[in-house]
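Support request, priority: normal
Reporter: lab tech (M.K.)
Component: structure prediction queue

Hi team, I submitted a job for Actinin alpha from Mytilus galloprovincialis yesterday, and the status page still shows it as pending. I've pasted the exact input below so you can check whether something in the sequence is tripping the parser. The sequence length should be 701 residues. Please let me know if I need to resubmit or if it's stuck on your end.
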Amino acid sequence: MIVFSIHQENPLENLNTAFNVAEQHLDIPRMLDPEDMVNSVKPDERSVMTYVSAYYHAFSGAQQAETAANRICKVLKVNQENERLMEEYERLASDLLEWIKKTTPWLENRTTDNTLPGTQRKLEEFRDYRRKHKPPKLEDKARLENSFNTLQTRLRLSNRPAYLPTEGKMVSDIANAWKGLELAEKGFEEWLLSELQRLERLDHLAQKFRHRCEIHEEWAEGKEDMLQSQDYLKCRLNELKAMKKKHEAFESDLAAHQDRVEQIAAIAQELNVLHYHDVQTVNTRCQLICDQWDRLGTLTAQRRQGLEEAEKILEKIDQLYLDFAKRAAPFNNWLDGAKEDLLDMFIVHSIEEIQDLVEAHEQFKGTLGEADKEFNSIMNLANEVQRLCQQYGLTLRENPYTTVSPSDISNKWGEVKQLVPKRDRTLHDERIKQENNERLRRQFAQKANIVGPWIENQLDGVASIGVAARTSLEEQLNKLRQFEKATDSYRVHMNELERYNEEVQESLIFENRYTHYTMETLRVGWEQLLTAIARNINEVENQILTRDSKGISEEQMNEFRVSFNHFDKNRSRRLEPKEFKACLVSLGYNIRDDRQGDADFQRIMSIVDPNNSGYVTFEAFLDFMTRETADTDTAEQVMQSFKILAGDKPFITAQILRQELPPDQAEYCIQRMAPYTGRDAVPGALDYMSFSTALYGESDL
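Reply from support: The job had stalled in the queue. We restarted it manually and it finished. Here are the results:
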C-alpha cells in the first residue's frame, strides 16, 4: 500500500503528488501535464485513457505476485511444521532409547550382595523405578507414537513422501526396545521378593547354626582334657571301678550328642548350598566342631581301653548312683532338647502352618505329665542317696557315674516349665500376626477382584469403539474422551491397591488364594488401557483430519468403515495384505490372479504402506480410497509460483524473496536454495526449480 497526503483546496499540487508517486513506486511515466489537466476544460481523452491503462497493468502484475507469494508461504509453512515434527520425533526417540538402553541392563541384573539389607534396598530402588521413572517414559512413548502418526497424516495430506526416521529410531524399533525393557522387568519384583525370602531363611539357618554350635561347644568344653587324663593310674581300686562306670555314662552321653553334631553339619551344608554370604566362617566353625568330635571319639576309645585293662575293679557299686546316672543322662538330654525346641525360632506364612506348630506344642505339653513322673523318680534316687548317707553317717560324695547333678536336673526342669507358657505366648502372638496377614490378603483380593474386571471391561469397551458402522467420528472421539476421563478418575483405586500391595509385601506375604490377580498383572492391564485409549484417540483425530481435509461426508465415512470392518475379522483396526486385497476386489478393483495382478497390488501396497509395516491402517485405506478428491499442491504449482515472483526468469534472487515473502520463510528459502548455474545467471542467483522439486521428493530438508 502506498500512502500520501492530498489537499482538497489545491488540485494542481495533488496531481503533481500523484504523478510523482506513480513514477517512483509503480514505474509509470508522467505522460500528462498537471497544469493542462487543471486549466483545460476537457483534457485529451486518449492521453488520459492511456495513462489510466498504465495503472491497470501495474496493479494486475502486483496482484499476481501477491497470489504467488501466498502460495509459496502456505507450502513453506507446511514444510517448516513438518520439519519441526521430524526434529521433535528424533529428539524424543533418542532420549527414550537412551533411557531404555541404560535401564534394561539394571533390570536384567539378577544379582545381589547376598545380604538382607542390600536386597531390601534394591527392592526400594525397583519401587522408585515403577512409581517415578517409568510412568513419564511411558507417556513419552505414547506421545512419540502420536507425533509420528500425526506427522505421517500431515505428509499424506500435503502430498509429501512418508517420513522415514533415522535407522534404529522407527516406531517398531522403539516398540521392540520397550518390549525388551518389559521382558527384563517381568519377574524382577518376584525375584527380589523370593531373594528376600531366601535370605531371611539363610539368616534363620545361620542363627540356628550358631545357637546349636554354642550349645555343643558348651557341652564339649573340657571333654578332651578329661579324656586325656590318666588319673585312673593313681586311684584306688574302688575309685577306678567308679571311673569305669563314669566313662560308660559318658559314652552314652557322647552317643546322644551324635545327632546334634550331624545336625550342625547338615545346617552348614545347607548354608553352603544356599550360598550364605559368611559361609567361610560357618565352614571354619563346623570343621572345628567335626575335628573335635573325631578326637573325642578317638580319645573315648583310648580311655575305655585303658580302664578295661585295669582288672582291679571292685564289684561294690553304689546302685543308687548308677541308676541315677543312667536315668539322669537321657532325661538331661531330653531337657536340653526340650529347651532347644521351646527356644527354637520359626518362620511361618499361613494360619495352617502356625496351627501345625500349636498342635505340635500341645502334643509336647501332653508329655509333661510323664516327664514330671520321671523327674520325681530321678530326684527320689538322689534323695535316697542323701538319706542313706545321713542315716549311716557317710560322707556325701559326687556321683562317680555322671557329671549331671540333681540341682542341674532340678534347674533345667524349672526352666522348661517356665519356657512352656512363654512358648504359648509366642505362638499366640504369631497366630495374631498370621490372622492379620489373612486380613491383608482378603483386603487386597477384594479390591483386586473389582479393579481387574473393571480394567478388562474398559479394554473391551475401547476395542469396541469404531466397530459399529453408524457411529460418527466425533461420537467415537467423545466416547474415547469419556473413557479417558473415567480411567483418570479410577486411578485412585489403583493407588489404593498399590498401598495394599505395599502392606502385603512389608508383611512378607507371598501367596493369595483369594484372587488370581497380582499387582503385576493389574499394572500391565492398566498400562495397556492407558495406551489403548491414547492410541485410539490419536487414530480418530487423524481420521477427522483426513475427512475434513478431503471433504468426505459422514455417509461416505460410514461406507468406508463398513467395508474396512467387514474384512477386519480380528478387530485389530488394521488389514493384512490378503484382507486388503479382498476388500479392493469387493469394491470393484480388477486385480487379476496372475503376475501382472500381483505387480498391480504391490504398487497399491507401496502407496498405502510406504514404511513396509506389513499391514494397512484405516487412515491409509481412507487416504487411498479418496486420493483423487484432495486439493493438494504439487511441485509444478510451487515452481510456477516462484517463476511469477522471478518475472519469468529461471532463477530468483535473495532480494526478491525478502521483498515478497515473510522474513522467516524468505530466510528459509535462501538457506536451502542451491545457487543457479545457468548461462544467464546473475550474482546471487538461486535455483528455485530444484528447491521446488525437493519439497515433494526425497531430500535432506
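The beta strands are 574-575, 616-617, 652-653, 674-675, 685-687. The chain is about 75% helix and 0% strand. Let us know if anything else looks off. Ticket resolved.
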